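Worked example

This section walks through a single chain of length 269. The input is the sequence exactly as stored; nothing has been trimmed or padded.
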Amino acid sequence: MPDSSAFPRRTALRTMAGAALAVPVLAGPLARFATAASPLWHPDPVKDGLKAFEGVEADRGGAHPDRKYVVVEGNHYRFTIWRDDRDTTGGGDRQRTETKGMVQNGSALKMRNGETWTLSYEMFIPASLHGTSRFTHIFQTKTPATNEGPWVTLDLVRDGGVEMISARAYANPGSPSIAAAKLAPLRDKWITIEWTLTPGDAGAAACVIRSGAGAGAPIAAQGSKTGVKLPDQGDYVRPKWGIYRSVESDPADILDTYLLFRNYRANRK
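Given that input, the structure is written out below as C-alpha coordinates.
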Protein backbone atom coordinates (compact mmCIF):
# COMPACT_ATOMS: atom_id res chain seq x y z
CA MET A 1 0.00 0.00 0.00
CA PRO A 2 1.39 3.47 -0.84
CA ASP A 3 2.84 5.49 2.02
CA SER A 4 0.26 7.96 3.27
CA SER A 5 1.80 8.55 6.68
CA ALA A 6 2.11 12.28 5.98
CA PHE A 7 -1.63 12.65 6.27
CA PRO A 8 -4.10 11.40 8.90
CA ARG A 9 -6.51 8.66 7.84
CA ARG A 10 -10.11 9.76 8.42
CA THR A 11 -13.34 8.01 7.74
CA ALA A 12 -15.55 9.53 5.04
CA LEU A 13 -19.03 10.08 3.58
CA ARG A 14 -20.85 11.29 0.19
CA THR A 15 -23.40 10.85 -2.93
CA MET A 16 -24.58 11.39 -6.49
CA ALA A 17 -27.75 10.51 -8.34
CA GLY A 18 -27.92 8.44 -11.48
CA ALA A 19 -25.48 5.69 -10.49
CA ALA A 20 -24.86 2.97 -13.04
CA LEU A 21 -23.57 0.09 -10.95
CA ALA A 22 -21.79 -3.14 -11.72
CA VAL A 23 -22.52 -4.83 -15.02
CA PRO A 24 -20.89 -8.21 -15.63
CA VAL A 25 -20.32 -7.98 -19.39
CA LEU A 26 -18.37 -5.21 -21.11
CA ALA A 27 -19.21 -4.67 -24.75
CA GLY A 28 -18.85 -2.11 -27.53
CA PRO A 29 -16.17 0.59 -27.46
CA LEU A 30 -15.46 0.05 -23.77
CA ALA A 31 -14.16 -3.47 -24.50
CA ARG A 32 -11.14 -2.04 -26.31
CA PHE A 33 -9.27 -1.48 -23.06
CA ALA A 34 -8.76 -5.20 -22.65
CA THR A 35 -6.83 -5.50 -25.91
CA ALA A 36 -5.52 -2.02 -26.79
CA ALA A 37 -1.86 -2.16 -27.85
CA SER A 38 0.82 0.44 -28.59
CA PRO A 39 -0.92 3.42 -26.97
CA LEU A 40 -0.09 6.88 -28.29
CA TRP A 41 0.50 8.06 -24.72
CA HIS A 42 2.03 5.80 -22.10
CA PRO A 43 4.33 7.84 -19.86
CA ASP A 44 6.88 6.24 -17.58
CA PRO A 45 7.02 8.30 -14.35
CA VAL A 46 10.71 7.50 -13.78
CA LYS A 47 11.82 8.27 -17.33
CA ASP A 48 9.39 11.02 -18.34
CA GLY A 49 8.62 12.67 -15.01
CA LEU A 50 6.48 15.80 -15.37
CA LYS A 51 7.43 16.06 -19.06
CA ALA A 52 4.56 13.62 -19.60
CA PHE A 53 2.20 16.60 -19.21
CA GLU A 54 1.82 20.02 -20.80
CA GLY A 55 2.11 21.60 -17.39
CA VAL A 56 1.27 21.64 -13.68
CA GLU A 57 -1.29 23.96 -12.10
CA ALA A 58 -0.72 24.31 -8.36
CA ASP A 59 0.01 27.22 -6.01
CA ARG A 60 -0.19 29.58 -8.96
CA GLY A 61 -0.07 32.56 -6.60
CA GLY A 62 3.25 31.39 -5.14
CA ALA A 63 2.02 31.36 -1.53
CA HIS A 64 3.81 28.12 -0.60
CA PRO A 65 7.04 27.85 -2.63
CA ASP A 66 8.46 25.10 -0.41
CA ARG A 67 5.61 22.67 -1.01
CA LYS A 68 5.93 19.83 -3.50
CA TYR A 69 2.58 19.49 -5.24
CA VAL A 70 3.15 16.92 -8.01
CA VAL A 71 6.07 14.52 -7.71
CA VAL A 72 7.20 11.15 -9.01
CA GLU A 73 7.10 8.50 -6.30
CA GLY A 74 8.39 5.17 -7.58
CA ASN A 75 6.13 3.93 -10.37
CA HIS A 76 3.42 6.56 -9.83
CA TYR A 77 2.70 10.27 -9.52
CA ARG A 78 1.65 11.83 -6.21
CA PHE A 79 -0.61 14.89 -6.26
CA THR A 80 -0.73 16.64 -2.87
CA ILE A 81 -3.05 19.40 -1.67
CA TRP A 82 -3.26 21.22 1.65
CA ARG A 83 -6.42 22.61 3.18
CA ASP A 84 -5.00 26.17 3.22
CA ASP A 85 -4.09 26.14 -0.50
CA ARG A 86 -5.99 28.67 -2.63
CA ASP A 87 -6.06 29.00 -6.39
CA THR A 88 -5.78 32.36 -8.13
CA THR A 89 -9.26 31.89 -9.66
CA GLY A 90 -12.60 32.05 -7.91
CA GLY A 91 -11.81 34.81 -5.43
CA GLY A 92 -10.31 32.41 -2.89
CA ASP A 93 -13.13 29.85 -2.93
CA ARG A 94 -11.20 26.96 -4.50
CA GLN A 95 -7.92 25.10 -4.67
CA ARG A 96 -6.15 22.95 -7.22
CA THR A 97 -3.27 20.56 -7.75
CA GLU A 98 -3.53 19.36 -11.35
CA THR A 99 -1.55 18.34 -14.38
CA LYS A 100 -2.84 19.19 -17.84
CA GLY A 101 -2.50 17.52 -21.22
CA MET A 102 -0.72 14.49 -22.62
CA VAL A 103 2.84 14.73 -24.00
CA GLN A 104 4.61 11.84 -25.71
CA ASN A 105 8.17 12.21 -27.03
CA GLY A 106 7.95 15.98 -26.63
CA SER A 107 4.70 16.43 -28.57
CA ALA A 108 1.29 17.23 -27.11
CA LEU A 109 -1.54 14.91 -28.10
CA LYS A 110 -4.73 16.76 -28.99
CA MET A 111 -8.29 15.46 -28.93
CA ARG A 112 -10.37 17.14 -31.65
CA ASN A 113 -14.00 17.12 -32.73
CA GLY A 114 -15.13 13.89 -34.38
CA GLU A 115 -12.19 11.83 -33.11
CA THR A 116 -12.72 9.01 -30.64
CA TRP A 117 -10.15 8.61 -27.89
CA THR A 118 -9.68 6.01 -25.18
CA LEU A 119 -7.97 7.05 -21.95
CA SER A 120 -7.23 4.78 -19.02
CA TYR A 121 -5.29 5.06 -15.78
CA GLU A 122 -5.02 3.61 -12.30
CA MET A 123 -5.74 5.75 -9.28
CA PHE A 124 -5.40 5.48 -5.49
CA ILE A 125 -7.90 7.48 -3.41
CA PRO A 126 -7.01 7.73 0.31
CA ALA A 127 -9.53 8.02 3.14
CA SER A 128 -8.52 11.66 3.63
CA LEU A 129 -9.88 12.68 0.19
CA HIS A 130 -13.60 13.14 0.67
CA GLY A 131 -16.57 13.64 -1.54
CA THR A 132 -17.97 17.14 -1.07
CA SER A 133 -21.24 19.03 -1.36
CA ARG A 134 -19.59 21.54 -3.70
CA PHE A 135 -17.40 20.49 -6.63
CA THR A 136 -14.42 18.17 -6.28
CA HIS A 137 -13.08 17.19 -9.71
CA ILE A 138 -10.36 14.54 -9.91
CA PHE A 139 -10.45 14.51 -13.73
CA GLN A 140 -11.76 17.19 -16.07
CA THR A 141 -11.69 18.16 -19.73
CA LYS A 142 -11.37 21.73 -20.99
CA THR A 143 -10.56 23.68 -24.17
CA PRO A 144 -7.22 25.51 -23.76
CA ALA A 145 -7.76 28.39 -26.22
CA THR A 146 -10.99 29.52 -24.57
CA ASN A 147 -10.40 28.07 -21.07
CA GLU A 148 -13.99 26.90 -21.26
CA GLY A 149 -15.34 23.83 -19.55
CA PRO A 150 -15.11 21.64 -17.66
CA TRP A 151 -16.96 19.48 -20.16
CA VAL A 152 -16.71 15.90 -18.83
CA THR A 153 -15.47 15.28 -15.29
CA LEU A 154 -14.86 12.61 -12.68
CA ASP A 155 -16.12 13.91 -9.35
CA LEU A 156 -16.16 12.97 -5.68
CA VAL A 157 -19.58 14.02 -4.45
CA ARG A 158 -21.75 13.88 -1.35
CA ASP A 159 -25.44 13.98 -0.63
CA GLY A 160 -26.07 13.37 3.02
CA GLY A 161 -23.96 10.59 4.50
CA VAL A 162 -23.03 8.72 1.31
CA GLU A 163 -20.01 9.55 -0.82
CA MET A 164 -19.92 8.68 -4.51
CA ILE A 165 -17.45 8.76 -7.37
CA SER A 166 -19.28 9.96 -10.48
CA ALA A 167 -18.33 10.42 -14.12
CA ARG A 168 -20.46 13.33 -15.31
CA ALA A 169 -21.41 15.23 -18.46
CA TYR A 170 -20.67 18.29 -16.38
CA ALA A 171 -21.42 20.96 -19.02
CA ASN A 172 -24.80 19.47 -19.96
CA PRO A 173 -27.91 20.79 -18.20
CA GLY A 174 -28.04 19.30 -14.72
CA SER A 175 -24.53 17.79 -15.05
CA PRO A 176 -25.97 14.26 -15.46
CA SER A 177 -24.07 11.21 -14.28
CA ILE A 178 -22.58 8.85 -16.88
CA ALA A 179 -21.46 6.20 -14.37
CA ALA A 180 -21.29 6.30 -10.58
CA ALA A 181 -20.36 4.05 -7.66
CA LYS A 182 -20.13 4.28 -3.90
CA LEU A 183 -16.74 5.67 -2.96
CA ALA A 184 -16.07 3.76 0.27
CA PRO A 185 -15.28 0.34 -1.33
CA LEU A 186 -12.89 1.99 -3.80
CA ARG A 187 -10.69 3.75 -1.25
CA ASP A 188 -7.18 2.88 -0.12
CA LYS A 189 -6.40 0.62 -3.08
CA TRP A 190 -5.55 0.96 -6.75
CA ILE A 191 -8.60 1.21 -9.00
CA THR A 192 -8.87 1.66 -12.77
CA ILE A 193 -10.69 4.35 -14.74
CA GLU A 194 -11.41 3.89 -18.47
CA TRP A 195 -12.83 6.61 -20.70
CA THR A 196 -14.05 6.67 -24.30
CA LEU A 197 -14.47 10.28 -25.43
CA THR A 198 -15.64 11.71 -28.75
CA PRO A 199 -15.32 15.52 -28.69
CA GLY A 200 -17.99 17.66 -30.32
CA ASP A 201 -20.77 20.13 -29.56
CA ALA A 202 -22.93 17.02 -29.21
CA GLY A 203 -20.21 14.47 -28.54
CA ALA A 204 -20.17 11.21 -26.61
CA ALA A 205 -18.62 9.90 -23.43
CA ALA A 206 -18.39 6.47 -21.80
CA CYS A 207 -16.74 5.51 -18.54
CA VAL A 208 -15.86 2.29 -16.73
CA ILE A 209 -14.86 2.38 -13.06
CA ARG A 210 -13.09 -0.81 -11.96
CA SER A 211 -12.64 -1.82 -8.34
CA GLY A 212 -9.04 -2.96 -8.78
CA ALA A 213 -5.93 -2.51 -10.89
CA GLY A 214 -5.94 -3.44 -14.57
CA ALA A 215 -8.41 -4.07 -17.36
CA GLY A 216 -9.48 -7.39 -15.85
CA ALA A 217 -10.53 -5.96 -12.48
CA PRO A 218 -14.23 -6.20 -11.52
CA ILE A 219 -16.50 -3.41 -12.75
CA ALA A 220 -17.91 -1.15 -10.05
CA ALA A 221 -19.81 1.05 -12.53
CA GLN A 222 -20.07 1.70 -16.23
CA GLY A 223 -22.19 3.81 -18.53
CA SER A 224 -22.25 5.90 -21.69
CA LYS A 225 -24.02 9.01 -22.93
CA THR A 226 -24.49 10.76 -26.27
CA GLY A 227 -25.27 14.43 -26.86
CA VAL A 228 -22.44 15.32 -24.48
CA LYS A 229 -21.11 18.87 -24.62
CA LEU A 230 -17.40 18.28 -25.27
CA PRO A 231 -16.36 20.81 -27.94
CA ASP A 232 -12.85 21.60 -29.14
CA GLN A 233 -14.06 25.13 -30.13
CA GLY A 234 -11.59 25.19 -33.02
CA ASP A 235 -8.71 24.20 -30.72
CA TYR A 236 -8.63 20.85 -28.88
CA VAL A 237 -9.98 19.17 -25.77
CA ARG A 238 -7.37 18.69 -23.05
CA PRO A 239 -7.67 16.30 -20.10
CA LYS A 240 -6.56 17.29 -16.62
CA TRP A 241 -5.81 15.07 -13.61
CA GLY A 242 -5.52 15.88 -9.93
CA ILE A 243 -7.61 17.60 -7.26
CA TYR A 244 -9.64 20.71 -8.07
CA ARG A 245 -12.20 21.50 -5.39
CA SER A 246 -14.28 24.18 -3.76
CA VAL A 247 -13.40 25.03 -0.17
CA GLU A 248 -17.00 26.07 0.52
CA SER A 249 -18.02 22.53 1.46
CA ASP A 250 -18.10 21.33 5.08
CA PRO A 251 -14.63 22.09 6.55
CA ALA A 252 -14.51 18.50 7.83
CA ASP A 253 -14.27 17.41 4.18
CA ILE A 254 -11.44 19.77 3.21
CA LEU A 255 -8.38 18.00 4.61
CA ASP A 256 -4.69 17.82 3.77
CA THR A 257 -4.72 14.95 1.30
CA TYR A 258 -3.30 13.46 -1.88
CA LEU A 259 -4.15 11.39 -4.95
CA LEU A 260 -1.96 8.85 -6.78
CA PHE A 261 -1.94 8.01 -10.50
CA ARG A 262 -0.09 5.43 -12.59
CA ASN A 263 -0.31 3.48 -15.85
CA TYR A 264 -1.70 6.29 -17.98
CA ARG A 265 -2.68 5.17 -21.48
CA ALA A 266 -4.33 7.04 -24.37
CA ASN A 267 -5.21 6.01 -27.93
CA ARG A 268 -7.05 7.54 -30.84
CA LYS A 269 -9.44 5.24 -32.70
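What to look for: The radius of gyration is 17 Å.
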